[in-house]
Amino acid sequence: MSFLITPHKKAILTAPEIARIVVRISHEILEKNKGSKNIALVGIRTGGVFLANRIHEKIQEIDAVSVPLGELDITFYRDDIGLNNKVPVIQKTSIPSDLTGLAVVLVDDVLFTGRTVRAAMDGLIDFCRPKQIQLAVLIDRGHRELPIRADFVGKNLPTARNEQVEVLWKETDFEDQVFVIHDGEEAR
Question: 2, 32, 156, 164: least buried by Cβ within 10 Å?
Answer without folding.
Answer: 2
